[in-house]
Automatic annotation (TrEMBL), chain A:
This is Pyruvate dehydrogenase E1 component alpha subunit. It comes from Azomonas agilis. PANTHER family: PYRUVATE DEHYDROGENASE E1 COMPONENT SUBUNIT ALPHA, PYRUVATE DEHYDROGENASE E1 COMPONENT, ALPHA SUBUNIT BACTERIAL AND ORGANELLAR. The lineage of its organism: Bacteria, Pseudomonadati, Pseudomonadota, Gammaproteobacteria, Pseudomonadales. One of its GO terms (biological process) is pyruvate decarboxylation to acetyl-CoA. Pfam families: E1_dh. Keywords: Oxidoreductase, Pyruvate, Thiamine pyrophosphate. It comes from the Bacteria. One of its GO terms (molecular function) is pyruvate dehydrogenase (acetyl-transferring) activity. The keyword Oxidoreductase applies.
UniProtKB/TrEMBL annotation, chain B:
NCBIfam families: PRK09212.1. The branched-chain alpha-keto dehydrogenase complex catalyzes the overall conversion of alpha-keto acids to acyl-CoA and CO(2). It contains multiple copies of three enzymatic components: branched-chain alpha-keto acid decarboxylase (E1), lipoamide acyltransferase (E2) and lipoamide dehydrogenase (E3). GO terms for molecular function: oxidoreductase activity. Keywords: Oxidoreductase, Pyruvate, Thiamine pyrophosphate. InterPro entries: THDP-binding (IPR029061), Transketo_C/PFOR_II (IPR009014), Transketolase-like_Pyr-bd (IPR005475), Transketolase_C (IPR033248). This is 2-oxoisovalerate dehydrogenase subunit beta. Residues 4-195 form the Transketolase-like pyrimidine-binding domain.
Length: 320, 341
């Protein structure tokens, strides 16, 4: 294993931050204080963290409508995120974006994106900037199995190959686009082979195994930084919640989610794989700290003020 | 002052800004052209096969090289998306869509992405992006290469929309657009590329949102954009000999729109013709007419006249296309009728 103990602890902390954040949102959403829609990432934590532990703040990511996990993994402030989701002035986007548009450019987070397949064309732009400025940065796009069918995703993959851009295309195959299974919607049923067809290396990994994701991304990032062009990675994972909070999931087998929680939990799998390096006490202590952080984020978000109505007119243009 | 064509003025603006700022890059299909052709390797290493589909950027690859003049596949979503992502992360890209009709292929990257970053992200994003493309009918290019959809762009908050009518304006407005911190859609009329006019050698800017009065007059105001400005000018010059004094207002940018510049002229003449190549419904003319009706109704001596194409696609055959384009004759007749009112 190439990771040091502090790195392993950091990876677990990030995965647990996502878990605690999302499960708390699941509860808070039933209280009615969260405006609009939220889409939870629970069950896919190993992908976001396995990717972002390979990145620096100078690298950029672009995300999906299911973006909380990517934001946390890339370093967005949890309090700012929570306040944004509650629609408050103190949110990362000052209450203008909400759950589906959390962005933090200083952390290299180009935004959650509510257009399915929206991130890849933008991320190749961040990659072009890195290539043009010669700063060795990379761009990473997150797209689901649903987004893998969008034409603009194909265009982005082709462009990245043609211009040899430092881009990593992550396809999170969680089995569903909204309420439609990928076996119905993904012709050929194999996103990896599809990406290979554009002329880049592509691998399929077990997306509930942090180490499988981490190692595949490490190789891809190294290749991109050295001028070797783009890579696609299809991470097989499972969505524990519905498409959106409130989705009754009529399309799922009875007991499926319970089975996933027991057998395909990325955090449990991480714990079992790091038994020799990390003690339960160390990991439990992280969970206690993170729970307190999430509690604080929720209390603060609830107490914080909404933006004043006059803000509806601000920040449309830099100048007009 | 040097006389240059509209085409040369566009190229000069690009070259001067690329020289001034190495973050300015050109992105588009055949902005150079000729890669992986079947001509000899020696020839392919030096030629610029197109320099843009109408030769506007020809010479820039030789001057600035492949890292600044970036040939792409014909994939508009990836061109505009890549340019938007690059703009948000530190470059100042000028993306070329060739024909503005092709915005239909990639509008998500403008409409849902570039236009909204700054607002959605609470003011933290800057997207200094220019999207160049051709508008306009008159070349039998038919329904998918002749439209002027600046009205659609103008209805989208977050983008600026520039529609220059002269060589002087196109250079100054393009330099301003490249230096602007917001996404700008820059509409070049294909009928104007050979138009000649005075263009200073040095780099200069024209602010966005300031109308230009190309003719001053007291009887009738014609509001027109792009190629239509020249038709309005021709009518003004002809009728002046008969003692009818026509003012021509060229807003130059659709968004921001110089409302004061328009209303000031309307207040002084009280008679208004709006000439617009965009659309018979929900067009630029309709927006400006609503502005005038709601803000300056008391100044009007007669109903506002709108001259637009019919509510049809642009036809191919020359007589059909000429019947479609707003004509000098229609403008002249409208002014004469207003003078009788």
């Amino acid at each position: 294993m190439s990771l040091t103990k502090p790195e392993l602890l950091q990876a677990y902390r990030k995965m647990y931050e996502i878990r605690a954040f999302e499960e708390r949102l699941h509860l808070e959403n039933t209280g009615g204080d969260i405006p609009g829609f939220i889409h939870l990432y629970t069950g896919e934590e190993a992908i976001a963290v396995g990717v972002c532990e390979n990145l620096t703040p100078q690298d950029y990511i672009g995300s999906t409508h299911r973006g909380h996990g990517h934001c946390i993994a890339k370093g967005c402030d949890i309090r700012g995120m929570m306040a944004e989701i509650f629609g408050k002035e103190t949110g990362l986007c000052r209450g203008k974006g909400g759950s589906m548009h959390i962005a933090d450019l200083e952390q290299g987070m180009l935004g959650a994106n509510a257009i399915v397949g929206g991130a890849p064309p933008l991320v190749i732009g961040a990659s072009l900037t890195a290539k043009t400025l010669g700063n060795k940065g990379v761009g990473v796009s997150f797209t689901g199995d649903g987004g893998s069918n969008q034409g603009l995703v194909f265009e982005a993959m082709n462009m990245a190959v043609v211009l040899q851009l430092p881009t990593i295309f992550i396809f999170e195959n969680n089995g569903f686009g909204e309420a439609t299974g990928h076996d119905y919607a993904v012709g050929g049923r194999n996103i990896t082979r599809r990406a290979e067809g554009f002329g880049m290396p592509a691998v399929r990994v077990d997306g509930v195994d942090f180490f499988a994701v981490y190692e595949a991304v490490k190789e891809a990032v190294q290749r991109a930084r050295e001028g070797g062009g783009p890579t696609a990675i299809e991470a097989m994972a499972y969505r524990w919640h519905g498409h959106f909070e409130g989705d009754p999931m009529l399309y799922r087998a009875e007991g499926e989610v319970e089975r996933l929680r027991a057998e395909k939990d990325p955090l449990k799998i991480f714990r079992s794989k790091t038994r020799k390096q990390l003690s339960d006490a160390e990991l439990d202590a992280i969970e206690t700290e993170v729970n307190a952080l999430v509690d604080e984020a929720v209390s603060k978000a609830k107490a914080d003020p909404y933006p004043p109505a006059e803000n509806v007119l601000t920040d449309v243009y830099a100048s007009y | 002052m040097a006389i240059k064509t509209y085409r040369e003025a566009v190229k000069e603006a690009l070259a001067q800004e690329m020289e001034r700022d190495e973050r300015v890059v050109l992105i588009g299909e055949d902005v150079r052209g000729g890669q992986a052709g079947t001509a000899s390797p020696e020839k392919l290493a030096t030629i610029e096969a197109f320099g843009g589909v109408l030769g506007v950027t020809k010479g820039l690859w030789t001057q600035f090289g492949s890292s600044r003049v970036i040939d792409t596949p014909i994939t508009e979503s990836a061109i505009v998306g890549m340019a938007a992502g690059a703009a948000m992360t530190g470059l100042r890209p000028v993306a070329e869509l060739m024909f503005m009709d092709f915005f239909g292929v990639c509008y998500d990257m403008i409409y849902n992405q570039a236009a909204k970053f700054r607002y959605m992200f609470g003011g933290k994003a800057k997207t200094p992006l220019v999207m160049r493309g051709m508008i306009g009918a008159g070349f039998s290019a038919a329904a998918q290469h002749s439209q002027s959809p600046y009205n659609i762009f103008g209805s989208t908050p977050g983008v600026k929309v520039v529609v220059p009518s002269s060589p002087y304006d196109v250079k100054g407005l393009l330099i301003q657009s490249i230096r602007d911190e917001d996404p700008v859609i820059f509409c070049e009329h294909k009928a104007l590329y050979e138009l000649k006019g005075e263009v200073p050698e040095h780099a200069y800017t024209i602010p966005l949102g300031v109308a230009n009065y190309t003719r001053e007059g007291t009887d009738v105001t014609i509001i027109a954009l792009s190629a239509m400005v020249h038709k309005a000018n021709a009518v003004a010059d002809k009728l002046l000999k008969e003692g009818i004094s026509v003012e021509v207002v060229d807003p130059r940018t659709v968004s921001p729109l110089d409302e004061e510049g328009i209303l000031e002229s309307v207040a002084s003449t009280g008679r208004v013709v709006i000439v617009d190549e965009s659309s018979a419904r929900f067009g630029f003319a309709h927006d400006v007419a609503a502005l005038i009706a709601s803000q300056a109704f008391h100044h009007l001596k007669a109903p506002i006249v709108l001259i637009t194409p019919p509510h049809t696609p642009v036809p191919f055959s020359p007589p059909l296309e000429q019947a479609w384009i707003p004509s000098v004759e229609r403008i002249e007749a409208a002014v004469r009728k207003l003078m009788e009112a």
